[in-house]
Design goal:
Structural class of chain B: alpha+beta
Oligomer: heterodimer
Largest interface: A-B, 45 and 30 residues
Number of strands of chain B: 17
Strand content of chain A: 5-15%
Shape of chain A: globular
Helix content of chain A: 25-40%
Radius of gyration of chain B: 31 Å
Number of domains of chain B: 3
Shape of chain B: elongated
Structural class of chain A: alpha/beta
Strand content of chain B: 15-25%
Distance between the termini of chain A: 20 Å
Number of domains of chain A: 1
Helix content of chain B: 25-40%
CATH topology of chain A: Amidase signature (AS) enzymes
Number of helices of chain A: 16
Order of helices and strands of chain A: HHEHEHEHEHEEHHEHEHHHHEHHEEH
């Protein structure tokens, strides 16, 4: 097979596998070769298990030979962000705290991927415990943007985005708490999608902020993202927040939706801080939709200005409690200096967590403290309701909302590392979606003059993923941004 | 000066369920350490809780039995604190919206004598909520070991108002609460297994004062008598402190039941800030009227209601009911036998005296016993009709208990049927009178008890099988004719 195998879409690979023009072992070997060739520079992976991946590929080929192929994902490698549990594989959250932790169980999405025959491929880097927008907070290393190795891939799912972007995996899973799938997808020129809260089970996903976290796909096309989402979505009795809903065949259904759609533009998403090149690219995309016959409407999301504040109260409050379990008692890092139980807590956590994680735990502990709860957490929850209501009101007159995914293209490694607030602003256009529990997708929509990718975010209505995919796809099909590959 | 004690109790009761509160792994006791665990219990990265609906059913039942108001929504909160027995370092609990509010526990104080019913009182409850139990720490010489088998077991916290005023009331409260939980099948309340645990908040104030004094929390009261002793000790301690001119410090004290002493664990300054907030992993659960109605239909009669009914309906003495009622099975056994025989008092006596003695000797429970309510009813009828003499009946019962044969069959087999042949009986009576001239003289002189002299003679002749009632009648008829 030709060397460009590693840049084919999953949909193309599925066809090659089905036609027996390609075996899963050949595919896996090519992905491994590509990874070995580029990951020294990209650093998307925390680790990968070659032998295990090839054994999974072999098993897939055997199934196919016996006519027992499990479906379109059978034999396709899927990279996993290192917060998604795979039995027998490391689960580190890119934290020193879990550097040596091996998961004894599968997450629900892992189980579903295995049922679909997909190959669980490697452990992808992230900002420690998914807290960050650049992977610079990883305790292990910073993943590089394949389009400019001096720059960040975005985050927190930077490893997942970079791996798909650099041809190290045709598909990957990430998690999105405030933009952690969509922002790196935009920065790395791939498709990244955050499903409606409750569509994908969180069982086996290391929790950052429980009421915001969702697992979602990274892919080289909207069709691929739809394919992967279809495999992992659905109610899970092990996750009380998972929604009881029928999961349609997204690929089949989305092809039937042709529009035109009523699309909303919110001025709150085109204000100060937006890079002019990003603004122009997104405006061009809006014009495309208009020309396609879509009705473009101005909508108002007046509480958007509070989203960042609300987010950093709710997310930190939840994380301060979620991360309490990492205490050095039962598993994970235990300080060698500790002499008693309290000492184990203090020293293990001091040594095991990085500065951003500590900052958020401290902030979250503060906002939940007696006397502050009402002023911060309770108030933030009320504003959160208003933010969600803004979107639901807008959806009275539009089918979806178009925004930039990230205010800027990829920034340089180290550029914002010393300024947490500047870093937090990277998520300014994505966090509202998490607070409102809505689905959102980022698709490539152009490049800056310096050759950096730009993403268009489409925000959809709750559980209307099919529509969302269809809208994103209609843009994608008419443009070639995705095929502009990084020079690695 | 006289002081009045004010006592409120916080009681933790483990709910009897097959699986744990938020995961499927078995909830059990006495297993090898850390065998009743799974990723959820151990709080591995990525796991999520799923509520055990049976545990929620149980607490609703407890609430309905205790007359609580049931919240329309069951909401879960996280109570955050670090301790090695708590795997997540937060406990899933209920903070501002407990599932049960209000209600009361009816108690009975000791009566003036053992056979006299004591005063009844209603101790009001503040709330009952559901949470998960923690693991167990075992402190070795150098290391501490943790067993997470208990972690995640459904646990109810039952909080009373500060409405008790003596160690005796607290003792009665716990006894009644325990009884109610066992009646409802909610918990076995075995304190040795930690299924019921009690903390007491105690303060004192000058008699007549309405303002509460500074409270002290007493922990580790791990048997019902330790609760009584510990509270009595604490009241005395506080009175002594005040009388010596001191003041009570708000603190938590640990009571040692073996030595009967207590020591300070921590003072108020060290109190936790639990940073409660709604658990984002668990959705609130709606408890609608149909749900409550279903549970209501499963609630048993309360122990004190049963006791009042037994006394009224069956006219059995208080002492009998106070043996029967604490045991639901025994009460049901009694009721069935009472209905079958129509002689509840006799049935009560058989159960309390003979059945319990035999069960004790055999070291078995009622469920394993071969004797059934119908046997007791039959036995009562045999004695009552004069077919079986009471002293022989005792042996018949033992035989029935051991074999499960019917009393009639045992009577036949052993030839214990009382002699009721009138001719033979009359002859024995005549012989007796002839043989005891002194008794005859005494009887004629008006000494009624002299008749017993003849009866002993007759019983000897009849080898004990004569029906005493018939003997008495016959003798009196013959004596009257002389």
């Amino acid at each position: 097979m030709s060397s460009d195998l590693h840049y084919k879409t999953a949909t193309e690979l599925t066809e090659l596998l089905a036609d027996k023009k390609l075996s899963s072992v050949e595919l896996m070997k090519s992905v491994i070769d590509r990874t070995k060739a580029v990951d020294g520079r990209v650093k998307a992976f925390n680790s990968y298990d070659e032998k295990d991946a090839l054994a999974q590929a072999k098993a897939s080929d055997d199934r196919r030979a016996r006519g027992l192929s499990a479906g379109p994902l059978d034999g396709i490698p899927v990279g996993l962000k290192d917060v998604i549990a795979v039995e027998g594989q490391p689960l580190t959250a890119s934290s020193k705290m879990l550097a040596n932790f091996v998961s004894p169980y599968d997450s629900t999405v892992t189980k579903k991927l295995k049922q679909a025959g997909a190959i669980c491929w490697g452990r992808l880097n992230l900002d420690e415990f998914a807290m960050g927008s650049s992977t610079e907070n990883s305790a292990f290393h910073t993943t590089r943007n394949p389009y400019d190795l001096e720059r960040v891939p975005g985050g927190s799912s930077g490893g997942s985005a970079a791996a798909v972007s650099a041809g190290e995996a045709p598909l990957a899973l990430g998690s999105d708490t405030g933009g952690s799938i969509r922002q790196p997808a935009a920065l790395c020129n791939v498709v990244g999608m955050k499903p409606t809260y409750g569509l994908v089970s969180r069982y086996g996903l290391i929790a950052f902020a429980s009421s915001l976290d969702q697992i979602g796909p990274f892919a080289r096309s909207v069709d691929d993202a739809a394919l992967l989402l279809g495999a992992i979505a659905g109610h899970d009795p092990l996750d009380s927040t998972s929604f009881k809903t029928e999961v349609p065949d997204y690929c089949l259904e989305l092809a039937k939706r042709k529009g035109p759609w009523r699309l909303g533009i919110a001025k709150e998403y085109f204000g100060e801080g937006l890079d002019p090149e990003v603004g122009a690219a997104v405006q061009a995309a809006v014009e495309f939709y208009r020309k396609q016959g879509c009705e473009i409407k101005e909508v108002s999301l007046p509480h958007t200005e509070y989203a960042l504040d609300v987010y950093y109260i709710i997310a930190t409050a939840e994380c301060s409690s979620n991360l309490a379990r990492y205490d050095g008692i039962r598993y994970g890092h235990r300080s060698k200096e500790a002499t008693d139980a309290i000492d184990i807590y203090f020293k293990s956590r001091a040594e095991g967590f990085g500065p951003e994680v500590k900052r958020r735990i401290i902030l979250g502990t503060y906002v939940l403290s007696s006397g502050y709860y009402d002023a911060y957490y309770l108030r933030a929850q009320k504003v959160r309701t208003l933010i969600r209501q803004d979107f639901l009101d807008a959806y009275q007159s539009v089918d979806a909302i178009l925004t930039p995914t990230s205010p800027t293209p990829a920034f340089k490694v180290g550029e914002k590392a010393a300024n947490p607030l500047a870093m937090y602003l990277s998520d300014i256009y994505t966090i509202g979606v998490n607070l409102a529990g809505l689905p959102g997708i980022s698709v490539p929509c152009g490049f800056s003059k310096s050759g950096l990718p730009i993403g268009l975010q489409v925000i959809g209505q709750p559980f209307k993923e099919t529509e969302l995919f269809a809208i994103a796809r209609s843009y994608e099909q008419a443009h070639e941004w995705g095929s502009r590959l990084p020079a690695l | 000066m006289n002081y009045e004690a004010v006592i409120g109790l916080e009681v933790h009761v483990q709910v009897k369920t097959r699986s744990k509160m938020f995961t499927r792994v078995e909830a059990g006791y006495g297993r090898a350490p850390n065998t009743l665990t799974d990723p959820v219990v151990l709080a591995l990265p990525g796991v999520l809780p799923v509520m055990n609906k049976v545990a929620l059913d149980a607490i609703i039942k407890a609430g309905l039995m205790l007359g609580c108001e049931i919240a329309p929504v069951c909401k879960w909160d996280r109570k955050n604190y670090f301790y090695p027995d708590s795997p997540k370092n937060y406990q899933i609990s209920q903070y501002d919206q407990p599932i049960c509010r209000g209600g009361f526990v009816e108690i009975e104080l000791p009566g003036s004598a053992r056979n006299v019913m004591g005063e009844h009182k209603r101790i009001p409850l503040t709330r009952i909520h559901l949470e998960e139990d923690v693991g167990k720490l075992n402190h070795e010489t150098v290391d501490s070991l943790i067993d997470y088998n208990r972690a995640g077991t459904p646990l109810m916290e039952i909080v009373s108002e500060p409405a008790m005023h003596s160690a005796e009331e607290a003792f009665a409260y716990l006894t009644s609460l325990r009884q109610t939980m066992i009646y409802g099948g909610i918990s076995d309340c075995d304190m040795e297994k930690g299924q019921l645990r009690c903390d007491a908040n105690i303060s004192i104030r000058p008699a007549g004062e309405t303002k509460l004094g500074t409270k002290v929390e007493l922990k580790n009261l791990n048997s019902i008598s330790f609760v009584r002793d510990g509270i009595a000790h604490e009241i005395k301690r506080q009175v002594a402190v005040i009388q010596a001119g001191g003041t009570i410090v708000q603190e938590t004290r640990d009571y040692d039941g073996q030595t009967g002493t207590s020591q300070s664990l921590r003072t108020k300054e060290m109190a936790h800030d639990y940073r409660y907030f709604p658990d984002p992993d668990l959705m609130p659960v709606k408890v609608d009227e149909a749900w409550k109605a279903r549970i209501k239909s499963e609630c048993p009669e309360l122990p004190f209601d049963k006791q009042r009914r037994f006394i009224e309906q069956y006219q059995v003495p208080y002492t009998i009911t106070s043996v029967l009622v604490p045991d639901q099975e025994l009460s049901a056994f009694f009721e069935e036998a009472a209905k079958l025989s129509g002689k509840p008092q006799q049935v009560g006596n058989w159960i309390v005296n003979d059945l319990l003695r035999e069960l004790g000797n055999a070291r078995i429970g009622l469920a394993e016993a071969k004797v059934k309510p119908a046997h007791i009813a039959e036995l009562v009828k045999l004695v009552d009709s004069g077919t079986l003499l009471s002293n022989a009946a005792k042996d018949v019962f033992v035989e029935v208990f051991q074999t499960g044969d019917s009393p009639a069959a045992v009577v036949d087999r052993k030839g214990l049927k009382a002699e009721t042949n009138a001719g033979e009986l009359e002859q024995w009576c005549r012989d007796a009178i002839a043989a005891n001239p002194k008794s005859l003289a005494d009887f004629k002189a008006g000494k009624d008890s002299a008749i017993n002299g003849f009866k002993g003679f007759i019983m000897k002749a009849a080898k004990g099988k004569a029906n005493p009632k018939l003997v008495d009648e016959t003798l009196r008829r013959l004596l009257a004719g002389l």
